[in-house]
Design brief:
The protein is built from 1 helix and 4 strands; from the N terminus they run αββββ. It is of the alpha+beta class. A hairpin with a 6-residue loop joins strand 2 and strand 3.
Length: 106
Amino acid sequence: MGDLFLLIAMGALGLFWMDGMRAREIAMAAARNACRRDGMQLLDDTVAIRSYKLARNDRGALKIRRVYQFEFSDTGDNRLDGSVVLLGRSIETLYMEPHRMAVEEG
């Protein structure tokens, strides 16, 4: 019985880890696309988990809300903060600290 419980617990942890990796990929793509759209540089080319907790979506289903943070630069000389909030695998909000927009030539 103890071995079965251990196996189930390890399986649940594995699923939680895999779901977290997929959520991180989604947050990373959102940050990368937002920086590219605004002509910004995504610093360190990564997002970092800041927090996670359980929350309900619009239909009342229990999901994991994850908050990821990232840093970007508008001049190359500074570091500005941004964040991506996921509810499950859906992007709830994407925030970028106020910055100068890049002007496209041509």
